[in-house]
Design a protein that fits this description.
Layout (H helix, E strand, L loop, with lengths): L10 H14 L6 H12 L3 H8 L7 H11 L2 H26 L5 E4 L2 E4 L2 H22 L14 H4 L8 H14 L6 E9 L10 H17 L6 E6 L2 E6 L4 H25 L7 E9 L5 H18 L5 E5 L6 H7 L5
Parallel strand pairs: 6-7
Antiparallel strand pairs: 1-2, 3-5, 3-6, 4-5
Protein name: GGDEF domain-containing protein
Organism: Peteryoungia ipomoeae
Length: 336
């Protein structure tokens, strides 16, 4: 005899029950599992309901995934398309990081000609935008865009320690002393406006959640020898070994989505939470410069982005020509 499954017609209540079920059985919150449970709870698909009831205890992700593959095959196609899109995005990002701002030559009629870099940057930017739109439509089920509605999520995150401005200075100095990367160096500053409003005892858990989650997922976007730092209490500095505008814009776009999704989690847990506005400023250099010079230039671009309310990063290039015996001793002299 089938075990009873209570049928419910209230979608909001059904959704809450489905999420509660996943949490209790330690099954990840993925759209496909959510859809399976909604169908079971609605009770309209008799075959699915019977198959669900027949599952052996304890219920696991593998068992639920088996039901999903059997009754929702279209999700498998979506997962394949989603994986292909993410792979293409990663390949494009790697390509942009490798070429940096290098001059590109093309062989035509037996002679080498300089390729118009603007045409390449424009094509890469259009492709990146198209991939981003595709990813949004597919709704990739990542942790950062599947926020938990319960307030307890603010305390369930593992701490993620990010270093401060002095560590950024030290890493830049060590990087320049070791040798300037061929693709150049960029410093992105992101001002997370609204974070300061959480700096009081009643909201300390929310502030920690924002800093931990934004820091963790931002660092996942970076490569070896790159890093993210809290340059002030509500400002993040991102050191990148890349100078390509489309590539950097893509990274900033992903950080922006992380911030927006974190804001959604905090707002559900704290309805009166402030809105998190964010802007980006970027300084790029192809020669060793004082770390403070790079930071100050990025800071000016950040201020300009906030004044003009520019959504994307504003860029500025920093010359490697500077005076000062202390920096000459550290970095050496460079020809103009």
């Amino acid at each position: 005899m089938d075990k009873p499954v209570v049928v419910d017609s209230n979608l909001e209540r059904l959704g809450a029950r489905a999420l509660r079920f996943l949490t209790q059985h330690r099954i990840p919150w993925k759209p496909i599992y959510y859809e399976v449970l909604l169908e079971v709870l609605e009770g309209r698909n008799t075959a699915l309901r019977r198959a669900f009831v027949a599952l052996e205890q304890p219920l696991t992700e593998d068992k639920l995934a088996g039901l999903a593959a059997r009754f929702f095959p279209r999700f498998q196609d979506l997962n394949t398309l989603r994986a292909s899109t993410e792979s293409l995005e990663q390949a494009l990002s790697t390509f942009c990081a490798q070429i940096g701002s290098s001059e590109i030559l093309s062989l035509r009629d037996g002679q080498w000609h300089t390729f118009d870099r603007n045409l390449l940057d424009q094509a890469v930017s259009e492709l990146s935008s198209a991939l981003a739109r595709t990813g949004n439509l597919l709704g990739a089920p990542t942790e950062e865009n599947s926020p938990l509605p319960e307030a307890g999520v603010l305390t369930s995150q593992l701490p993620f320690d990010m270093q401060d401005f002095s560590a950024l200075e030290h890493q830049l100095s060590a990087l320049f002393e070791k040798g300037m990367p061929d693709q150049g160096v960029s410093l992105i500053l992101c001002h997370l406006k609204g974070l300061a409003s959480l700096r009081h005892p009643q909201a300390s858990e929310a502030e920690s959640y924002v800093r931990n989650t934004v820091g963790r997922f931002t660092n996942r976007l970076l490569h070896e020898d790159e890093g993210a730092f809290w340059t002030s209490q509500d400002e993040m500095g991102i050191l990148m070994l890349a100078t390509s505008e489309p590539y950097i814009e893509g990274v900033c776009s992903k950080i922006g989505k992380i911030i927006e999704n974190v804001e959604g989690v905090v707002t559900r847990a704290m309805p009166n939470a402030p809105k998190f506005n964010h802007h980006f400023g970027c300084a790029r250099t192809y020669r060793p410069v004082p770390p403070t010079h790079l930071y100050n230039t990025a800071s000016k671009m950040l201020q300009r982005a906030e004044l003009t309310e520019e959504a994307g990063p504003l860029f500025a290039e920093v010359s490697g020509q500077f005076s000062g015996k202390r920096y000459e001793a550290l970095y050496g002299r460079h020809e103009p």
